[in-house]
Amino acid sequence: MLSQTKLQLFKFASLHILPKPLHLSASSRTTKISCISLLKKCKSMQHLKQIQTQILITGLHQSGDILNKLMVCCTDPSIGDLHYAGKIFNYIDIPGLFIYNLMIKAFTKNGSFRKAVLLFRQLREQGLSPDNFTYPFVFKAIGCLGEVREGEKVYGFVVKSGLEFDTYVCNSLMDMYAEVGKVENLKQVFEEMPERDVVSWNILISGFVKCRRYEDAVDGFRLMQRQSSLMPDEATVVCTLSACTALKMLDLGKEIHRYVSEKLGFTIKIGNALVDMYCKCGHLSIARQIFYDMPIKTVICSTSMVSGYVNCGQLDEARELFERSPVKDIVLWTAMINGYVQFNRFDEAVALFREMQIKMVCPDRFTLVALLTGCAQSGTLEQGQWIHGYIDENKITIDTVVGTALIEMYAKCGFIEKSLEIFNGLQEKDTASWTSIICGLAMNGKTSKALDLFSEMEQTGIKPDDITFIGVLSACSHGGLVEEGRNHFTSMTKVYRIEPKLEHYGCLIDILGRAGQLDEAEELIEKIPNVNNEVIIPLYGALLSACRTHGNVEMGERVAKRLVGIDSGDSSVHSLLANIYASADRWEDVTKVRRKMKKLGVKKVPGCSLVDVNGIVHEFLAGNASHQK
User: Fold this and answer.
1) Per-residue confidence (pLDDT) for residue 488, from 0 to 100
2) Are 217 and 243 within 8 A, CB to CB?
3) DSSP 542-572
4) Do 431 and 463 meet the contact criterion of CB atoms below 8 Å apart?
5) 3-state secondary structure string, 467-527?
6) CA-CA distance, 320 to 348, in Å (whole number)?
7) pLDDT band at 57 (very low <50, low <70, confident <90, very high)
8) Cα 616-617-623 angle, rounded to 5 deg
């Protein structure tokens, strides 16, 4: 209750600051029951303050029930004021557990996680014993703060209080472990629970999805079907469909679709999840049917459909649906812009961005990254600089995502010094930003600087990925550093346990080919495990190119025969072999190759150039004079 000193202050504030009390009829008596009834009907803070004044005037403030109900109203987000609730709370000498629970819940839902945890400590210092209404919101706050040790300490209190098997508490503990990425702890709590409800299963599945353990999420759903009599609800279905989408597990997705149709029924969230799953699994026709059958089409499902059309290369259909969407949020705009960038229709991406600005839609960092990616692909430095200027003018933070896109754009446009300036200005650098500058330096022939930065990256403890090593090996190739290239390739496989891909083998073969070590390059190709045509053709193509450079006719013939046997329609193989013969003055063989190309109907693919003129990109094909300029 309120102490005498605090009561005087409380009364003073109520009489001088709060509005006048409610005017009750003469027949009405302000009783405890009538006050509680008024508080239950309370619709606003103004009304609440009037009731509070009436309570103080009539001396009913000493009632625990009324004080509790007053705090319920103050902490209600729809009518209350958490700041005001905090003031009342501070006037209470010894708040009960009920009021502590209200305040902890309110602070957690308000995002004031630190205050919620501090209140929990305070209630324990007051000698109160937390219950199963206290712990869930404390765990929620700790999970959002990412403080694992604090969470484990609180779990110790749970065990001491005998609530370690309470379903409500266990569910919140599991949710906390999911939030901080402790999957094994999440599983352990779930497995030790004597009783599980639908929420328990949902937290298990959603926790796996949140931690990108999609196979485990599917296994959790299957386990629920086998071991539990509980029926999957909306949350179960939506989470499991997210895992199906990530794994492209269409069969399970269809099974869940049938379950929804036959037993559970459709909701907006389930409809959105199904549309997204079918789109990302490439089944646009089914996604389209679900989409058009939905009574309410949200911007979420519209975005999924637009992205689905984009992924299938149907940009015109995507644009048509985009235009029909009654609501367009930034995600939908970005999906459409990104589609144009993805298929090299950069002018249309920029035009759509201009339209977006006219309609006063503020771009986010992902919109700008999509546009910068388009500038990098097309080499349009002027457009890229304009976007960079837009970022600066609008005070958009250049974080690792935006910074990486700027680094890549300037590097691909040949402005590598600007890339270095942006990289050095980043407050935080992740694997992507380090990789971007290393690859940029490599493609601009700055071999020493690229390798120096790679060493610095390793020293800072940031782990390189497979793309980082493409940049490193490319740098070695440009610099003719054969031994360094071999060492980095070995380090990638032995130290970082990264499985070499086509690009890595291609870089190493290029290194060996440039150095004239053709036998080693050929031997490397033959030793590649689980080789298939997709890998073998470009690698032998790189070796054939090296044969031409070094005039190795014998190996060139051997490699060309292998390539023709795999893909006889590839014009580059025939052209390279003809050039090898020409460099060795074997003109009869050159004629034979060209006759064979004609017989097989193989045509040489013409070269293509892109030229940026006043912000517009023009494409010119070799031998084609049809361009208007």
Assistant:
1) 95
2) yes
3) HHHHHHHHHT-HHHHHHHHHHHHHH-TT-HH
4) yes
5) HHHHHHHHHHHHHCCHHHHHHHHHHHHHCCCCCCCHHHHHHHHHHHHHCCCHHHHHHHHHH
6) 14
7) low
8) 135
